[in-house]
Design goal:
three-stranded antiparallel beta sheet, single chain, seven-stranded antiparallel beta sheet, alpha+beta
């Protein structure tokens, strides 16, 4: 039986959970509340080609995964995973492995879209992701001091679980972070898959633990190859004379997932409450505020780098 995973998400970043229930902690089928079973049976699980109209894109899932549309995805986030309604705003759907449920799964991918404009990959071969990692860590000590005062677990960015890598052919950027929460037996895995399009970025954010890194890597590879933008909305369709530019490159896109530093810059504190052995509750930052901050900080002229960002 797989582990019960409660997934946190945010547009442009995801704040991670400290622990996961072991198989022994997963309630046996006969002890699962009837209302939860009924809710699961009532979901409209879709397979095959899934159109995401907001992103002008399609997910080619085949029969390996299933997709929950926006309305049901938001109900899962609020009713099953225990998040407030604000967290579910902007969610376009959830992808889960075939055979898994919304309450018993190794991972789930939250689908969102940011119409930020064209993200340039001109510096793909020269981006300094080591510098980005250090910037992600820069506000960690101060942030953790605040978390301790509030009675919350501390978070340490151990490093890349998978360094950022860019598939220039498919215009897919993938990276993963290894995060350690105080008191957790297993480190958290925060895995990001971003597909670049003409008008913005399609995001599939996956959360699990480091024990399942290989599983997530396989699924992420599938997503990167099976998702596509519609004709006219692809990365290659970008027209520099008429189309909006996001104003930042790949390193800026990765830095948007800074987590602690971004939360500190926005003046928010990630709230983690009552994480027990079986169910985890996580509140995430509203995406609209993040998007406004992100565009302001990372908008740059030619030759400028992500090193100009102040996350201290």
């Amino acid at each position: 039986m797989s582990r019960v995973v409660m997934i946190a998400w945010a547009l442009g970043l995801a704040l991670s959970v400290p622990s996961f229930a072991s198989a022994a902690d997963t309630p046996p089928a006969e002890k699962i509340p009837p209302a939860l079973v009924a809710f699961e049976k009532g979901l409209h699980k879709q397979t095959g080609d899934i159109v995401i109209p907001e992103a002008k894109a399609t997910l080619h899932l085949g029969d390996r995964y299933y997709f929950l549309p926006a309305k049901e995805a938001r109900e899962v986030i609020t009713k099953i995973w225990g998040n407030p309604p604000s967290v579910a705003e902007g969610v376009l759907g959830i992808v889960i492995e075939k055979g898994a449920t919304t309450y018993d799964n190794v991972w789930g991918a939250i689908v969102t879209y940011d119409p930020s404009g064209y993200v340039t990959d001109a510096d793909a071969k020269t981006e300094d992701y080591a510098n980005v990692l250090e910037q992600m860590r820069s506000g960690e000590a101060e942030e953790n001091a605040e978390r301790k005062k509030g009675g919350y677990s501390t978070i340490h960015l151990v490093g890349w679980a998978q360094p950022p890598s860019y598939d220039a052919k498919n215009h897919v950027l993938v990276w993963a972070r290894n995060l350690a929460f105080s008191g957790a037996k297993v480190n958290t895995l925060n895995y990001d898959v971003r597909l670049l399009g003409r008008e913005g970025v399609l995001s599939l954010n996956m959360l699990s633990d480091m024990d399942h890194l290989a599983d997530i890597q396989r699924a992420a590879s599938d997503f990167g190859q099976s998702a596509s933008f519609n004709p006219g909305a692809t990365y290659a369709d970008y027209n520099s004379s008429t189309d909006k530019s996001a104003g930042y490159g790949l390193a800026g896109l990765v830095a948007a997932g800074a987590g602690l530093a971004v939360a500190k810059k926005l003046g928010f504190l990630a709230i983690l409450l009552g994480f027990g052995k079986k169910f985890l509750i996580l509140f995430a930052i509203a995406g609209a505020a993040l998007a406004r901050w992100f565009r302001k900080i990372f908008r740059r002229g030619d030759g400028d780098g992500v090193g100009t960002v102040d996350v201290g």
